[in-house]
Amino acid sequence: MNLSQYTKEFRYNLQLAYPVIIGMLGHTLIGIVDNIMVGKLGSTELAAVSLGNSMIFIAMSIGIGFSTALTPIVAEADSENDTTTMRAAFQHGLFLCTILGILLFGLVVLCEPIMELLHQPKDVIVLAKPYLNWVAFSLVPLIMYQGYKQFADGLSMTKYSMYAIVMANIIHVVINYWLIYGIWIFPKMGIIGAALGTVISRILMVTFMHFILLKQDKLKHYFKGFTFDSLKKSMLVKIINLGFPSAMQMLFEVVLFTAAIWLCGNIGKTSQAANQIALSLASMTFMFAMGLSVVSMIRVSNQRGLQDYKSLVVVARSIFLLAILIEIVFAILFVALHQFLPPLFLDMNDPMQLLDNQEVVTIAAKLLLVAAVFQISDGIQVVVLGALRGLQDVKIPMYITFVAYWVIGFPISYYLGEYTSLKAVGVWIGLLAGLSTAAIFLYIRFHLITKRLILGNNKIIHNDSIL
Known about the structure:
The chain contains 17 helices and no strands. Helix 2 runs antiparallel to helix 13 (about 270-305), helix 3 runs parallel beside helix 13 and helix 16 (about 395-420) packs antiparallel against helix 17. Helices cover about 85% and strands about 0% of the residues. By secondary structure, the protein is an all-alpha fold. The longest helix has about 45 residues, at about 425-465. It is globular, with a radius of gyration of 22 Å.
């Protein structure tokens, strides 16, 4: 293997990836800011936000996963200079994202009673319910934003979503500060203030994204001429056929991590709060791999449109290698800082909360050691999934992720968490098993597909040369 053929792609990969990574980090930071600010109120409030967000994350995973169908369609059409397909994909995709956002909002509100069935602490549920209802509404602008984002990503215009999310985070922090603690003329609203901060920032985010794309001269064409009569069944079906399995892939992983929240809640309030701290930090580093996954989807789609399958493999492997190197760095940092990071999420000077908070820190530090190990597996599986989406191969990966997370990962998490002394650490060992299984079998799938494409293309070239 000639390593230089892969490393020479690093620069362009990072140029495309860094705006996506910042945007992904922005999504995660909205949750982390809520956790840090609410954590100062107490471990009960932190656990309530964790419980409420666990249900939001499930719905969000469906919406974000579905919206990724737009990127490979647009990127492939872009490499073929097919503006008609790009315009149709954007308009049909945005329409479907809007409908899906409204449906997910309604679904989350209807599912609120599930919290009662999960055997969560009563005081946590009381606080979580009103928080959940408000944040559920923010799914509508969030999924609409994803429609704009995935379209721009497909055109390799990854910076605009970064601008939108940075703006949203600044506004979110300010509104949170005012409404959680009751600063200046604003009432002290606690975790409801955090929920309102999320809603307002996401409405402004999608508004900003709409106008910043509309102002680009080369994109104005794509905004014109939309009517309900112009919707075509063929394009709707194409997006749904790609979007539904992609949504399920993301859903299976997110629900596995959500189940970890519920399992830790069964163990106790401190385990649930510790899980939320470790999950917040692991999610933040995971966004780097998620950014590279988007780059993988874009670049593989471009090469697929050009039918240059040998270059496709080189590009994809360069992204896989880059993700592994970055995740190794984060794994080392988690090991080095596992005692230092958890106290940042809690008020360690509050004598009323001191015993609970000390227990939370002890558990979270152990979880970070497990998280350090699965950084690499998590990074591999998500960038390979991006490459497979770029190849528009989504159904078999859907089955692979289901088996990895729910036939292998969850049973291990459940057994070790409920029936051994490992408790929360055991739950996370199950997560590691599921992610590692997914990484191995998704890569095998990518290797088999690309090998078949290269052999098929070589046969066509050989036959043409004979003729």
